[in-house]
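Internal ticket #5521
Category: modeling
Description: The requester needs a full-assembly model to guide mutagenesis choices. All entity lines are attached below as received. Residue total reported by intake: 946.
Assigned to: D.W.
Attached entities:
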Amino acid sequence: MEITLTVNGAAKAVDVPDNALLVDVLRESLGLTGTHVGCDTSQCGACVVHMNGDAVKSCTVLAGQADGADVTTIEGIGNPDDLHPMQEAFRDNHALQCGFCTPGMIMSAIDLVQKGGGALDEAAVRDGLEGNLCRCTGYHNIVKAVLAAQSSM
Amino acid sequence: MASETGIGASVKRKEDARFITGAGNYTDDINAPGQTHAVFVRSPYARARINGIDTAAAAATDGVVAVFTGADLAADEIGDLPCGWLVKSKDGSDMVAPPHPPIATEAVNYVGEPYAVVIGETLEAARNGAEAVDADFEERPAVVDLATAASADQIHESVPNNQAYDWELGDKAATDAAFDGAHHVATVDIVNNRLIPNAIEPRAALGEYDAAAGTYTLHTTSQNPHLERLVLAAFVNVAPEARLRVISPDVGGGFGSKIFVYAEETAVIWAAGKVRRPVKWRAERSESFLADAHGRDHVTTAQLALDQNGKFLGLRVKTKANMGAYLSTFASSVPTYLYGTLMAGQYTTPAIYVEVQSLYTNTAPVDAYRGAGRPEATYVVERCVETAAREMGIDPAEIRRRNFIQPGDFPYDTPVALTYDTGDYEASLDKALGHIDYAGFGARRAASESAGKKRGIGFSCYIEACGLAPSQVAISLGAGVGLFEVGEVRVDVTGSVTVVTGSHSHGQSHETTFAQIISDKLGVPFENVTVLHGDTGRSDYALGTYGSRSLAVGGSAIIKATDKIIAKGKKIAAHILEAQEDQMDFADGTFTVVDSNQSITFGEVAFAAYVPQNYPLEELEPGLSEKAFYDPPNFTYPAGAHICEVEVDPDTGVVDIVDFVAVDDFGHVVNPMIVEGQVHGGLAQGIGQALLEHGVYDDAGQLLSGSYMDYTMPRADDLPSFTVDTTVTPCTHNPLGVKGCGEAGAIGSTAAVMNAVTDALGVASVPMPATPETVWRAASARGSSAEGAERGE
């Protein structure tokens, strides 16, 4: 099956099996390995990307569902010389350790802040990140980072 | 040098640029041209004899490259997975370890044990092939219950009573005498619940074989690639060390579970040689649940004897420890030398006797998980202390004060084989009491009560032995390897520095912390220091990361190498400045001739080292690159006070952690930001054990908690923000005065939470995890015995 989609602003056409997942398209077909697979069952959130403006778990989106979609991954939001405010907040607040959950966490957090209308408090951030597992940080610094980014985004 | 990037500064991490932009390089991100994919075929039974395995249909499946069983590995003389620590029983006999073939041959002994591996052109082809493997199993009754395992059906032919060993530590007679003279005896019956580590990155491996060179390269998710290589070479017989390179690139968390040498990477690297193509494997999360080594899983009865003033006289501990179906790489050491030795805690208890019977069951192997033995010991000691305080009507802070080892008592020999070098336990407790506002607790409790809630406060004054380990001590106690570390400091021609460490970072931030040390000691800009790790092709034989050892042992090796760099630099500087070597001083990146205005910078010396002019070559070699091995003379002893305050809703059983304070003494701190982060993560895991996490098998040995839907991982909305602080008594025996901070959170916090929950409910005991149902039941059964509450689970 051939699908076309926009990934990080660039048009892409990929030929994948019918049962391929969006995360396979990103990681295997396009080499965008920043999006991670932590659980295969849409529980951990390491694979979160943005699709048509919403945070989605890309391990639970069929490639076919992403046909024609506009997808943004962690590679598409900033780079070391020009970080997204959320990336900067994660670094400044030591909101990551091993880094494995980080791309999904950042993508979820951006979606959360963008839809939060600037009104997120600690409880709302904790509630909003409930779909992303982190085993390293205890979430303390992630919450700090998201609240900081809410001010800077 | 007090600088913005030196020792003591909260420098932002070097690692972050790649991780926050998606440029990390984890094992699963790496692909080799022409690679195949491995899928393991795993036992659906907890215990069964294998009468035969028919692989014909699997081999004939489209896209299947090869199918291997344990017989194929055995035919190639691939050996068993060994346990690296020999523990002896009370009677002096060696522990009994059953054979542990990487791929099961005659029997399977836990659900998820691999009995075949299918190699496919694609992952899907390998999966299809795995579906087609047909094994003839003869199911046998599973042994699951730890408490009765010793008298259950014998699992392994070579292991009578399913017993690995029956170990003891301490003076039994002296302890009995202490109890004979006791005014009060507090007894606790506790179950330390089985945990499943769940690093968010699943284990993975990519094996490659270079037929022309005869060399193997294994990329894998290991905390200690040299150990992996040693075991694969010396015991498993994959290839000689010199022809096997193990690389652990970015690793997404370990928490102990990635120390061990597992079946999967063993089969992957061996199979790469057989099929002559790269072989790749990544665990699905369900495989992580089934086949990563689990943690904890003890059943314990403990008694604390006290005099009329609440002074501890003796401690008696009897534990059954679950080893699972086989003895994992370091499993035997966890409930013995990392557990029994910690039973003195922070206290002057003069007589202690610990007995541990380690038993096999038809469950996944159990090994070190963050804290490894020390959380279990802390849970025993601090539940005993809390119970005694309540039974004797003594304030829980006060009873601890009365029994603390005092700052003037160090070095302090405990009755359980350790010598604590330093500490000030009351300082940590006082600071923690201040942070939690202990004085105001009564009013807060009253306010909760008027709102229909129950408020409780719980203490945990823990100690841990870290900086593993003095090789001499470890080897005398049965370790099969030395436990030193290596560090190499290579000064580049232009004065920048490359550090190669044997420690491995999988979240701990070595690239930053070690660069701070170098920057501080050599006066080289932080950004000009690069830290390399995780590759047997880059560093000398090393032991890797576990037991909160990286800074205390790996960092000390780097300091030792740095000292050699400075000494060599002085020689070079003296040569250039035509001074005597013993007249040279070095500070802030400059070599100076004492009592003169002659000086030369570190960068100039580095350049001169590689552009040698008029060198007296018999006395002075070119180059500026030094290596050191550091073997610690003692363990380090981080300690602290954790206080948890909870509010329980008696109608729902929901426990709300309203405040959590951790005050830890890690000795000197290189990067406070990083240390705080380590504590936060440990606290989450300790709180997770107390309230959420539980690895559960049913009577048939099926893992009921085998997914994130069934095993409750701490999520952001389960946890509070924490108050963390430190006190400092520098370690007396390593150059940085550091103790290690990686495990403290997980070691101290669990007991604090459970002491708070039981305090809130006014009950002697609540089993872990204290889920809403459990808490609600305990609240309803208030007043029943501790034993009843634990066993009733």
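Resolution: model delivered.
Comment from assignee: Residues 295-468+634-791 of chain B form a domain with the Aldehyde Oxidoreductase; domain 4 fold (CATH 3.30.365.10).
Ticket closed.
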